[in-house]
């Protein structure tokens, strides 16, 4: 009787020990699994690994809209297709694309180094020549008379200094001159003769006419008005036979030896322009001839039509090469020199929304870099942000590698086909075609819409999109709902179909 309770106690202790051991083993296993899983979770959170391939993903995008980036995979909001990953080890990633050296030479790609230089800055503008109004002269009549001959025939007529403008007949001059001659013939004393001369001067009879009266003894009733300087008759207000009154302006003479240059300053630079800044101007008809000067004054007010501020200066035109109304190319120089980061202007691609420079990395790969640009300095452009001194950038041929789409599709095809395109790169690009299989969704006179399979050569996944037809009556047998194999090429107007055949006949 006592042995049975003892056996039960032993069995109970043994079962408890077994359960305790099993719990320990299970707990240890779970702990090891958690410890092993922890590094994987950290790596995934920090690097965005592709669950299918395990490769590092920079971002996901729609190949048809490459500039739009997404942090997670999913369906494209633009096309009927899944977003595709861009891997860090691909040419389209942040490491750029490498182009065959022979192809670079054939495409005429040149490089230049970003440099820093002390410049006075300044900017380019346009200007217009005008008459210097401060040097204009007016020809007026001081007496009542009649124009018996008008030498200047029309406004804007060129005229030399001292050339006649008009001849006036002045009847009121006859009586005082006859009175003076009578006094002189009557041997009157000098006091009366001098009083008569004073009266003639008061009637605006010129001293030259009085001198001729003493010499010839004949009264003169005509006077010729002449040009005070060489220039043009900018205004002509009388005609032959017209009566003129004292103080009436007959003509206005504008000189050409000095001209005004009115410079149109962009509104954004209005606050940086000051009197005294240097100006160098050239005319398109003779770019080798430079006209220099300093801004004399800033005219008040902004033009509502051109949104520009006008600055005025005087330029020397003693050689008479310029005439009013000429359009001039103007460079306004800065007042103080400053250190600026410069690249050739041709290296900057400006799209309106951004400015891009293609940078060459230390390993020879090319990648676009967004930059903030400042003012132009001659043939160079100031870079405010996005580049460092000593960086190597593409100075020509950068249009081939401007966008991310070019980096992911065009350049890899050029790189892989370098041997074929080296002999004739233009022909190779023109004959490049692509093919895939898809279902016809819609047919119009302009295009055909397919739900097609991936196109690896372009980096496309499966999607639905429209392709242009070469002509409205092309491919008349293609109907919606058919599954076909089609060939297309890239043109300036988009992707154009070149061949369509039933999928069962595809090679």
Automatic annotation (TrEMBL):
Domain CusB-like barrel-sandwich hybrid residue range list: 137-253
Q: Which residues form the CusB-like beta-barrel domain?
A: 258-335
What molecular function does GO assign, one term? transmembrane transporter activity
**Heavy metal binding domain: residues covered:** 59-86
InterPro entries membership: 3HB_CusB, Beta-barrel_RND_2, BSH_CusB, CusF_Ec, CusF_sf, CzcB_C, HMBD, MFP_Cation_Efflux
Q: Which residues form the CzcB-like C-terminal circularly permuted SH3-like domain?
A: 342-401
The family note in this entry says: Belongs to the membrane fusion protein (MFP) (TC 8.A.1) family.
**GO BP terms in the entry:** copper ion export; plasma membrane copper ion transport
One GO location term (cellular component): outer membrane-bounded periplasmic space
Q: Is Signal one of the keywords UniProt gives this record?
A: yes
Record keywords: Ion transport, Signal, Transport
Positions of transmembrane segments: none
Q: One Pfam match, by short name? A: HMBD
Annotated ranges, domain CusB-like three alpha-helical bundle: 172-221
Keyword Glycoprotein attributed: no
Stated name of the protein:
Efflux RND transporter periplasmic adaptor subunit
- Top-rank taxon, per record: Bacteria
